[in-house]
Write a structure and sequence with these properties.
By secondary structure, the protein is an alpha+beta fold. The strands form 7 sheets. A 4-stranded antiparallel beta sheet has the order 14-15-20-21. α13 packs across α15 (269-286), α14 (258-265) packs across α15 and α30 runs antiparallel to α33.
Length: 736
């Protein structure tokens, strides 16, 4: 190995020395504490700083490896010497981690996903690693100052203004003089349009200002300094070795191993890991320090919103598509790999993660789906775009990317079974179809026999002719009846048909009176308003009530919403909420509500496409909750909030159903039935079949399946007895 003269052999003096990413990851604060000397911190302050390092890492650096987050960490450091809680020691042992080097290549996201490991345990590990990192040397990666300052002390009149600036000052002075002359000293110079009769000289001055272009202000060299150029300049402040490491490890299409790079430079893999961490931290600072790159990063986050096609983002900010020459990658990839606030993957930009974007998508689809899982694309507000006329097309592309099936202008959310798929097709078509006609609209291969069998035993369907099938809710008696003909014509005319045209068509072909046609057209399943006939089902409310909302359950004095804890929750991100939450809180679009809780105010906002719960990270920390845990976000009738961990499922169908709705476990079948009935807003005396149907219709199929398996128990109030058979061989043969 060669001598590594660029390595700083002194232990870090400030927190920023130990963690170069701090400045970039932290939000703007009144006092940038990362410049504080580590040795000057008393034990209480030191503990606070270590907790802040851990929290920032979980918020902004989940895609970073432990080695990148803690660049000064020695790989030989034995974790047994840390004063870790027993749960942390056990967790590390289960994953065969005994020294820092064993986890240096692991991403923080993968650690947060460890089973049965709560966020409090992960926090303890991170703080221990941070503690160790503040007493170890870190590498130097810069060769140039991060920024240059403008010369000072020059008098203003000694500087010659550029021609464009002199002309601009003259034009502004002309406009200001005019406003002062007519007695309007407070008038904005470039506010509303000029009044009629304004002198031509003033009008021309205003026009020249409005027509001023970028290339009138900047010279040729400045015009070339776009996003890609700024990244090249920032990367130019790093030593060549650090740039090479970032190009191979962070920005490249395929990651080069630490060993390979170490061999190329004649240093250890751990030295490469340390340089990588500090270099990435330095680059993160460039997009977080108020520079043009920081403005680009902020604008990109804002434009993405939640979901935006990459091609659309590039149309708004074309320079993001230019190549950063020093690493050979487009600027958008460099920005994405540095900024953990969003992800760009497979041509889609999402905030904050692909998992979160898919959750938002699933929730909105559930909000707008009809009972058969069909959603109009035009009803969705998912994809941000600068081309509103393409929104439906882009929405369809995004849903296809997420694995949903598209049928024309509709998305299908329930296609797991051939029956679900067939029901969705009929719901879209609006009139009876033959088996083959339904299959022709499938995008997956299915047999006519399997579809016919499925519809024959499914109470959602009704056979209305030899090979004609309808949805039972339509109430068709016979395909040849007047109702069928009306439905067919309404569907053929796009869901709306004029009554007089219906009367003319039907009476011209069938022996019925005009009054009969008018009577049928005005009764369910149709409605007739102002001479236009349509399906009454078209008036279905798109937004779900709390009683109709999946995973939302009523309990005495509160509504409980069941969620599965994800790494996004652990890192402190907010989470999507169904619109029913807004109904419960009487929350209007654009409003934010603060609900009191045992751990301080809990925010619920509706400022985006869906309502959102604010971060629940403090509740997860308080109870050391791990990713994958089922929990309940509880909104009480008195306007307070609480967090509850769901019970583990036991295999007992009735008790598991109670666990899934957040109700207490009880040996009483009557109490269990009452809780399950009340949870979906049904009267206490509702038949069990209605309760099961309510759960299935709202999308809680897991609960519906459990209740189906214990239906007899719920109906009779006691568990069924197993029949006993004492028949001899002759009796059995007689039966056969």
């Amino acid at each position: 190995m060669t001598d590594d003269v660029s390595f700083d052999e002194l232990r870090p003096r400030t927190w920023l020395d130990a963690f170069p990413w701090l400045k970039g990851a932290a939000e703007s604060v009144a006092t940038p504490w990362w410049h504080e000397a580590i040795d000057d911190a008393d034990p209480v302050v030191r503990g606070q700083r270590l907790a802040q390092v851990s929290e920032l890492a979980m918020e902004r650096l989940t895609r970073w490896t432990i080695g990148q987050i803690f660049p000064g960490l020695s790989p030989d450091l034995e974790l047994a010497q840390f004063h870790l809680p027993a749960r942390a020691v056990n967790a590390l042992g289960r994953h065969n981690i005994f020294c820092a080097g064993d986890m240096s290549g692991m991403t923080l996201e993968s650690i947060l996903e460890w089973r049965q490991v709560g966020i409090g345990t992960v926090d303890a590990i991170l703080q221990a690693l941070a503690d160790a990192s503040t007493s170890l040397p870190t590498p130097s990666v810069t060769t140039l100052p991060s920024a240059t300052s403008m010369p000072t002390g020059l008098p203003f009149d000694s500087v010659r203004l550029p021609d464009w600036m002199s002309a601009l000052v003259d034009d502004l002075t002309t406009i200001a003089t005019w406003y002062a002359t007519v007695g309007l000293p407070g008038q904005p110079l470039l506010g509303d349009g000029l009044a009629a009769g304004t002198p031509d000289e003033v009008v021309k001055a205003r026009r020249r200002i409005e027509e001023l272009r970028t290339d009138d202000v900047l010279d040729e060299a400045e015009l070339e300094m776009d996003i890609a150029g700024l990244f090249d300049d920032a990367l130019g402040t790093l030593e060549p070795r650090a740039r090479r490491i970032l190009a191979d490890r962070i920005f490249g299409n395929e990651v080069v191993t630490l060993d390979e790079i170490g061999q190329a430079f004649g240093v250890t893999r751990e030295r490469i890991r340390q340089i990588e961490g500090k270099a990435r931290g330095a680059m993160l600072g460039y997009i977080s320090d108020g520079s043009p790159l920081e403005m680009v990063a902020h604008t990109a986050r804002t434009l993405i919103g939640t979901i935006r096609p990459l091609e659309d983002l590039l149309a708004v900010m074309p320079a993001l598509g230019k190549t950063v020459e020093s690493v050979g990658q487009p600027a958008w990839r460099v920005l994405d790999r540095l900024d953990d606030a969003y992800e760009i993957e497979d041509g889609w930009c999402v905030v904050p993660t692909m998992t979160a974007a898919r959750t938002v998508t699933q929730t909105q689809l559930q909000e707008h789906a009809d009972p058969y899982g069909v959603v109009r694309l035009e009803d969705l507000e998912l994809v941000e775009t600068s081309q509103p006329e393409r929104r439906a097309e882009l929405t369809a592309a995004w849903l296809t990317h997420c694995g949903y099936l598209i049928d024309g202008d509709y998305a299908l959310t329930r296609t797991q079974s051939v029956g679900d798929y067939g029901a969705a097709i009929l719901s879209i078509h609006g009139s009876p179809l033959g088996v083959q006609e339904i299959l022709d609209r499938f995008v997956v291969e299915r047999s006519a026999g399997s579809l016919r069998n499925a519809m024959s035993i499914d109470d959602r369907f009704e056979r209305v002719d030899r090979d004609q099938w309808a949805l039972k809710e339509w109430g068709l008696e016979a395909y040849a009846g007047i109702r069928s003909v009306i439905r067919e014509q309404v569907a053929r005319h796009g869901g709306r048909a004029k009554l007089d045209e219906l009367v003319e068509y039907i009476t011209g072909r069938y022996s019925v009176t005009a009054s009969s046609v008018a009577a049928y057209a005005s009764t369910p399943p149709f409605t007739c308003k102002e001479g236009v006939v349509r399906l009454a089902a078209g008036d279905r409310e798109i937004r779900k009530t709390p009683e109709q909302t999946r995973r939302m359950f009523r309990r005495p004095g509160a509504w409980a919403y069941r969620v599965r804890i994800t790494t996004d929750h652990l890192r402190g991100s907010g989470s999507v909420a169904p619109v029913a939450v807004a109904s419960i809180l009487d929350l209007q679009f654009g409003e934010t509500r603060q609900l009191e809780s045992a751990l301080g105010p809990q925010s619920v906002a509706w400022t985006g496409i869906q309502p959102q719960f604010g971060t629940i990270r403090r509740f997860l920390m308080d109870q050391d909750i791990a990713a994958g845990t089922e929990a309940f976000l509880v909104i009480h009738d008195d306007g307070t909030f609480s967090f509850e961990v769901g019970r583990e499922l036991t295999g007992n169908a009735l008790l598991d159903a109670l666990s899934l709705i957040g109700a207490p476990a009880t040996p009483s079948i009557d109490e269990a039935r009452a809780a399950l009935t009340a949870a979906v807003g049904l009267p206490e005396a509702s038949p069990v079949s209605s309760v099961i149907g309510a759960y299935r219709e709202r999308g809680d199929g897991d609960i519906a399946d459990l209740l189906t398996s214990v239906r007899e128990t719920l109906e009779t109030g006691h568990a069924p007895t197993q029949p006993t058979h004492r028949a001899d061989v002759d009796e059995i043969l007689d039966l056969l």
